[in-house]
Amino acid sequence: MTHTITIDIPERMYQKAANLAAARHISLEQLVQEQFYATLELYWQERSKTATKEEFDQVLKRVPDVEPEEYDRLH
Length: 75
Description:
Elements: H1 11-23, H2 28-50, H3 53-61
Helix pairs in contact: 1-2
């Protein structure tokens, strides 16, 4: 499943990003996705440094104990 988002950015930033994507021989969309993923990964790495096992266990308690949907099963 994918979602589409729309963002407004200054023309100069758009041109710099488009030029970088072209220089890397990738689409602008792929460049933005890579940076988005990298930012999220950095966030979660930093967050994991301060998280405790107790916090993790509290989160797991909120997850329903049900069988996964067919599309979400590990085969």
